[in-house]
């Protein structure tokens, strides 16, 4: 019997994932990853989604109901290094990071997988809405989930071939409604638990304050400027802004203003019109290919430039050892440095990278 470690967050999806794998005949072990919570934070983050402390209580109850062994594993060190430090330094460099992607790749997979293999497991599993498939060319990739509305492949594009070969994602074949129904049918108390939102380690959403506390210095104010350098006013500190942002700028310019660029070197936030925020091209690096080993020639693909982007057609081509150029067929708004761009070849993830 193959042994699988299921990352259990106490939520509906990972709970049903454990149930489905048990039904399929796997020897299932439930594990909750303790990654940033300290006990005294339990109160403020009751609803902080996949990684709150309530997660442990809920997951333990589910594991007991499913009659599977359950453990809590501490990954605070890995999470601090791979996710929090990266998050803070990206904002300080004027970029908008995606901590969930870093957490998936380096903590939920890299660290959990190594520890699971060490205790004799064959696979790890999660409650993500995605499907792992092995293609005819022998490579592993992700296929969009059966429920496109819930598809989470964007946040998983960075997984390696080794990680994919040892990953099960049983929830990807179902819709959210079907998953909730299953949870109710097996009397799991968490059947109606809300989905996790926002970034787990900043439960109040105030990134700028969080970053100041992490780095221990006040982020200085600076100038809002136009592309030609005209000063428009004062900004609160570059960590308060992200490219494409429109709300909360506190500028009355007589036209809708957007953040076009963040310049940490001069401590300026560049403001412009919606037209100026549109572009047809982007460059990306730190590439990870899934369905193909490498991109040998230009290819027309479907790309997403943020998690809730509906996607757009483009052509991608390599322009360096680890850099590609993506040219869209129609202009896109708010291409944001630090975010991921993920490429799809039909239903399958071709690969992705970080927008430069």
Notes on the protein architecture:
With 356 residues, this protein is of the alpha/beta class. The protein contains 7 helices and 17 strands. It has helices at residues 12-23, 54-66, 76-92, 99-118, 161-165, 176-185, 207-215; strands spanning 3-7, 27-34, 70-74, 123-125, 130-134, 140-144, 167-168, 222-225, 231-235, 258-263, 268-272, 278-289, 299-304, 312-320, 323-333, 340-345, 348-355. The strands form 4 sheets. A 6-stranded antiparallel β-barrel has the order 12-15-14-13-16-17. A 5-stranded parallel sheet has the order 3-2-1-4-7, with helices on both faces. Helix 1 (12-23) packs parallel to helix 2, helix 1 (12-23) packs across helix 6 (176-185) and helix 3 runs antiparallel to helix 4. It is globular and about 65 Å long. The termini are far apart.
For the record, give the distance between the C-alpha atoms at the N and C termini, rounded to a whole number.
45 Å
Q: How do the SSEs run, as a string of H and E?
A: EHEHEHHEEEHEHHEEEEEEEEEE
Going by helix content, strand content and strand pairing, the class is: alpha/beta
Largest sheet: 6 strands, antiparallel, barrel
Backbone shape: globular
Mean of residue pLDDT values: 93
Q: What's the total count of β strands?
A: 17
In spatial order, strands of the major sheet run: 12-15-14-13-16-17
Report Rg. Answer: 21 Å
Residue share in helix: 10-25%
Count of helical stretches: 7
Q: How big a fraction of the residues is strand?
A: 25-35%
Question: What ranges have pLDDT less than 50 throughout 5 or more consecutive residues?
Answer: 39-48
